C-alpha cells in the first residue's frame, strides 16, 4: 500500500477535431451532463442519480462483450465539479466505481479551430488527472480516452449534420 501512495498521478489528454460544427453547436451536446450515452460509443447508460448543477451526480455504465456466462457491466458515479458555458468546459470526478479508479478528475473543453479569416470547425479536448489504476498503464488510459473521444466526435458530427 505504501508504494501506491508514492506513485505519481497519471496525467493525460486526448483531442478530437470536428471539421464542420462550431463550438456553439457542440457545447449544448456536452452541457447535458446526463446524455453522454448518446455520444460516447463505449457507454450504454448515463442518467442522473442526484443533485443539480455543481452537485449533480450521474451514473454511467457499459456492458462489455459477454463471456460465456453473460456480459460484465462496468459502472461509475461521476460528480460534476464545474460547468462553464462561456469557456465551454466542464469538469467532473469519478466517485464510486467498479473500474479500479481511486481518484480521477477530468475536464472536457470545446474550442474553435482557427483557419484563415474564419473559424473552421472545433475541437474537443478531454484531459485527466488520476491515481494509477491496477492492471492498466497511463498509456492504456490515454488510448482508451482517445478512442472514446474520436467516436464521440464522429457521433456528434453525424447528429449535427442530420439536424
Radius of gyration: 17 Å
Task: Please give the number of β-strands.
Answer: 7
Content-based structural category: alpha+beta
- Could you give the order of the helices and strands? HEHEEEEEEH
Instruction: Give the strand order of the largest sheet, numbering strands 1, 2, ... along the chain.
Output: 1-7-6-5-4-3-2
- Percent range for helical residues? 10-25%
GO molecular function: protein phosphatase inhibitor activity
Organism: Sesamum radiatum
Protein name: Lachrymatory-factor synthase
Structural features, described:
Pfam families: Polyketide_cyc2. GO terms for molecular function: protein phosphatase inhibitor activity. This is Lachrymatory-factor synthase. It comes from Sesamum radiatum (Black benniseed). The chain is an alpha+beta fold. Helix content is 24%, strand content 43%. It has helices spanning 2-6, 23-31, 138-162; strands at 10-18, 45-50, 57-64, 72-84, 89-97, 104-115, 118-130. It has a seven-stranded antiparallel sheet with strand order 1-7-6-5-4-3-2. The longest helix has 25 residues, at 138-162. The radius of gyration is 17 Å and the shape is globular. The chain starts with a helix and ends with a helix.
Amino acid at each position: 500500500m505504501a508504494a501506491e501512495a508514492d506513485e505519481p498521478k497519471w496525467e493525460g489528454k486526448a483531442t478530437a477535431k470536428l471539421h464542420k460544427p462550431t463550438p456553439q453547436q457542440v457545447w449544448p451536446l456536452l452541457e447535458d451532463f446526463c446524455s453522454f450515452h448518446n455520444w460516447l460509443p463505449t457507454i450504454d447508460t448515463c442518467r442522473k442519480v442526484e443533485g443539480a448543477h455543481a452537485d449533480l451526480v450521474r451514473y454511467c455504465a457499459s456492458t462489455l462483450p459477454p463471456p460465456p456466462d453473460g456480459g460484465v457491466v462496468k459502472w461509475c458515479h461521476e460528480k460534476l465539479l464545474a460547468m462553464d458555458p462561456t469557456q465551454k468546459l466542464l469538469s467532473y470526478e469519478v466517485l464510486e466505481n467498479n473500474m479500479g479508479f481511486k481518484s480521477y478528475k477530468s475536464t472536457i473543453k470545446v474550442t474553435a479551430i482557427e483557419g484563415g479569416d474564419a473559424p473552421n470547425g472545433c475541437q474537443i479536448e478531454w484531459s485527466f488527472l488520476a491515481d494509477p489504476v491496477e492492471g492498466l498503464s497511463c498509456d492504456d488510459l490515454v488510448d482508451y480516452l482517445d478512442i472514446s473521444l474520436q467516436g464521440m466526435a464522429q457521433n456528434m458530427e453525424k447528429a449535427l449534420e442530420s439536424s
